[in-house]
Specification:
Length: about 210
């Protein structure tokens, strides 16, 4: 095993640990005295921060989670610019770290913001298409989960179509988009089941979340 191999492994570990940083817990507990793991959905992502605390907390959590992905993808690309597999693997590790963080007993978020951050560095055109689609769905249908799912799927499809049709992209980048997107959709399966059953809460209904 070469020094480069050790460096690649170290960057992947770095990716997981960075992704594991519990932004929602740090913001919720540190600034608002609210433990997101004990409120709302028990999720430490921006959506639960919005539901449980408010817009300000959600924005801070969203930005923090997004830049976890940006940081991992950017640093990995700078340190090992000729090893796109390591960049993709470390970025995937960051998304996994966010969804299964070691610092909070593996209870994390859905991975959307961290995945977007990494993809913004690795495959920005995917984010340029996926984010507006997701936002428009949230605005018009008021389901954050549906916007996250459809926006993610749209980004994955765009990445695949561009790669297949000869867009100048690396196979490692496309694999990252597909794997990260699959994990994000998987994380939303409970939401998807509630959507199908007509039991998913819209944004306007969040005020009734804690009544039971």
């Amino acid at each position: 095993m070469t020094l480069g191999d050790f460096g690649g492994i170290g960057l992947i570990v770095f990716g997981y640990l960075t992704g594991s940083i519990p932004t929602g817990i740090l913001v919720g507990n540190g600034l608002f005295g609210v433990n997101l793991l004990q409120r709302g959905s028990g999720n430490m992502g921006a959506t639960n921060a919005l539901r449980s605390i408010g817009v300000g907390a959600a924005v801070v959590v969203l930005i923090g989670d997004f830049f976890k992905g940006v940081l991992v993808a950017a640093i990995t690309g700078i340190v090992l610019p000729d090893q796109p597999f390591v960049q993709a693997a470390a970025s995937m590790a960051a998304v996994i770290g966010h969804t299964r963080p070691i610092f909070t007993n593996f209870r994390g978020g859905r991975g959307v913001a961290t995945g977007m951050g990494a993809a913004a560095v690795i495959y920005p055109i995917v984010i340029a298409v996926g984010i507006p689609v997701g936002i428009m769905l949230v605005i018009f249908l008021r389901y954050v989960s549906l916007g996250s799912i459809i926006g993610t799927v749209t980004g994955v499809l765009v990445g695949l179509i561009l790669y297949i049709t000869g867009y100048p992209s690396r196979v490692e980048d496309t694999i990252f988009v597909v794997l990260a997107g699959t994990l994000i959709v998987w994380q939303h399966l409970p939401n998807l089941k509630r959507l199908i059953a007509g039991k998913e809460l819209q944004i306007a209904e969040w005020s009734s979340y804690f009544r039971n």
